[in-house]
Amino acid sequence: MDEKLSHAIEVANFNTSLTAQRHMYKTKFDNDCLYAHNGGLFEITENLLSYVDLLIRHEHVGFILIDKNNNPIMVDNLETFFSDILEKYSMASNSYYASISKLRRKRMVSRLVQK
Question: Which residue from 38, 35, 31 is spatially nearest to 71, judged by alpha carbons?
Answer without folding.
Answer: 38
